[in-house]
Amino acid sequence: xxxxxxxxxxxxxxxxxxxxxxxxxxxxxxxxxxxxxxxxxxxxxxxxxxxxxxxxxxxxxxxxxxxxxxxxxxxxxxxxxxxxxxxxxxxxxxxxxxxxxxxxxxxxxxxxxxxxxxxxxxxxxxxxxxxxxxxxxxxxxxxxxxxxxxxxxxxxxxxxxxxxxxxxxxxxxxxxxxxxxxxxxxxxxxxxxxxxxxxxxxxxxxxxxxxxxxxxxxxxxxxxxxxxxxxxxxxxxxxxxxxxxxxxxxxxxxxxxxxxxxxxxxxxxxxxxxxxxxxxxxxxxxxxxxxxxxxxxxxxxxxxxxxxxxxxxxxxxxxxxxxxxxxxxxxxxxxxxxxxxxxxxxxxxxxxxxxxxxxxxxxxxxxxxxxxxxxxxxxxxxxxxxxxxxxxxxxxxxxxxxxxxxxxxxxxxxxxxxxxxxxxxxxxxxxxxxxxxxxxxxxxxxxxxxxxxxxxxxxxxxxxxxxxxxxxxxxxxxxxxxxxxxxxxxxxxxxxxxxxxxxxxxxxxxxxxxxxxxxxxxxxxxxxxxxxxxxxxxxxxxxxxxxxxxxxxxxxxxxxxxxxxxxxxxxxxxxxxxxxxxxxxxxxxxxxxxxxxxxxxxxxxxxxxxxxxxxxxxxxxxxxxxxxxxxxxxxxxxxxxxxxxxxxxxxxxxxxxxxxxxxxxxxxxxxxxxxxxxxxxxxxxxxxxxxxxxxxxxxxxxxxxxxxxxxxxxxxxxxxxxxxxxxxxxxxxxxxxxxxxxxxxxxxxxxxxxxxxxxxxxxxxxxxxxxxxxxxxxxxxxxxxxxxxxxxxxxxxxxxxxxxxxxxxxxxxxxxxxxxxxxxxxxxxxxxxxxxxxxxxxxxxxxxxxxxxxxxxxxxxxxxxxxxxxxxxxxxxxxxxxxxxxxxxxxxxxxxxxxxxxxxxxxxxxxxxxxxxxxxxxxxxxxxxxxxxxxxxxxxxxxxxxxxxxxxxxxxxxxxxxxxxxxxxxxxxxxxxxxxxxxxxxxxxxxxxxxxxxxxxxxxxx
Length: 1006
What we know:
By secondary structure, the protein is of the alpha+beta class.
């Protein structure tokens, strides 16, 4: 009877599926309700939920989902059960999007352990296997993080893939929306990504096969498809083209009373001109179906952004645009050199073509139109043939003579007041180039062709054939002697990308990085030393400061002599001191740009938990100090209030130690981190430091084992390597006695008795495990692991800690091969354990401790100099090798300026690396426009002179979505100019000093 009912239910479900496909949702609900009378199945409830959702009956949809979940245990097949669960949960999330929180107050069941492993493994394997797929998808990292947490049982079901946070809002209804045109052939082209998003921070790239695997289970709101494209002509370097090429489009003849404002469109840089043309033809045909124009006949023109299209009549039969360039149909857009600011004219043919880029030529003798010959003498009149010229000579000879004598017309040179078009995220390059272009001694060197004598075409450290020097010379000539208001530096960009692969493509880069490569590359291309000798670095020991500096400079000059060295290289003194033997090493090194860190004068309240040896409860102290203070300053303050000498400060993020803080770390960088100062034993080098993770089990889920979560910050314990594991376990039980005793039915006197009582309990109060810290193997999205050192399982979720008098800690440590980081233990309390909140008790000290500091309302360039030339202790990752101690040590390092160059380039270090992205310091640094005097900061005896500012590279916004401009002092304009890509305008000196100033260019007064 049961099988008969099940078969009837299945038949009705098949019928209901057809109803859903035909969008007969009401009928599907009737059929499904009848089916569920025969047999309640998860599949039946899933279809019912889908039908209710499509009828906007969201509460009924959620009710069906819950009933479907309750029937899941009836499915014996694990894989099928998990598949239906995913679909039910996805449907639930979609319904919850339409309801208030009060209507959706239900818990999401965690996935089974098998499903967690299978889903992640399959996604990982698909991502790795299909890493060469042509099609990829941009996926929100926020969603992927939630999905991963869900699989680990620490987050609710992620719902459908949500990518909207990555996109600009351009909601197309028809073929256009505002200033945007809709691609009618490729839907993914209509998804405009935000400029500010960064890979690995905001999104992850996923190959299509792996993406479809995710989408099948979860659904998605927007599928952001992008393609793998070659970056080089050889095709040996491929990249996913995440951000498409923006183009600005205007149709001629116009479909409106005036020529239209350019519309935005985007297309692959690797598309051909004819591909773009076909797309635009289809759009305008859809937009204007009643037009009499033949949309099948069109051609594309490129015009400069300063071309005033509004000057032309929208229905003119003939339009002359001399700057227009006809784009050949078979040319790839990237090779057509269309800059982001250029305008693309799509010209539809009327009786004849409308646009011409050459004026009509008329024979002055016979008035014939066609290809003409110029008068060879005056160039002012044209003839169709030599016969017409002979016949007209008697009328023209007097005029010809006067024209030759009086008409000498040459277009006015721009004298550097020329913009550079943005070729696609190249504002960083334009900014740096404008600043270097206004380095007048260097520009005069190139304009006078003096550089030719210095060309070093065979320098292996330069660009082949000195290509960079020639490309730069060509660009400088165009900027200063050309007549165009703006240029497209395509050739320079091509040369840079050819020899510096990091600049291939059209990603945003750092103007400081480009500047460094450009000046170093020019130096090597123009290096007057043809054969560099190998000379060992000299030693300063036993020499006076002056002798040592000159010796190092001579050593540098034997391999490096160029106009860049003559103008831009200075020398600084670097002092390193070993903290153990106090040996001092001094070198005098050359520098091309001087990088200055920016002090932070904000007042910070820094809270630190002070943890004494053996204590479970820390004491919390709060210190009031300057944000630019270092960790070493904080340590001094802690010693005064705590009275403990041996301690280290650990930084925690989400209860996990992120490492001990180096003494030179600035306090202002420690936001959002919990700081704990751990007391160390006096002879701590003879102990093994073992971090202890403290966790607790949650309640058991639908099909899964109990989830585990960390309940307190990691503790640090110290054990002798010779100590046995039974003794270690006793020490840990004793350390946690406050919690343990509160969960026993009787009082105990020592750790041995406590351990015995714990063994006698019905359900274990806790388990002690070895944390699996085996190294991760590199994956495309997430990483796998090497086998666990203790059980050999790649999927090990921590191994039980042995409890034996015969096993020593050293035995366990000797097994470590695949692990990274320290050997760690984990105590996991059962879900029944009470009083675990005691682990988070803190004894709070009453009032903040004040540390004396200087209060400042502003930051000056001199403050940055003092801050950057202070002594600092090298961090753990940057140790120095002491030749006397024969080991790497955290030396004290000091930078001091020894000499200054003629052209001083100061790089304000506004960016600090944080994981996949960098944080920016937007503080205003005040710097002088004239009369910069650094004499008190220079060690050398020579008077360094004073400096005047002539250029600034600016950066606005964040690094990923920011924008670069330049301020330059132009001699022809006799004023400051703002250079923003192709736009050049006069500006006041008062605007030059701003929080956007990033690289400062100073010239020493003659």
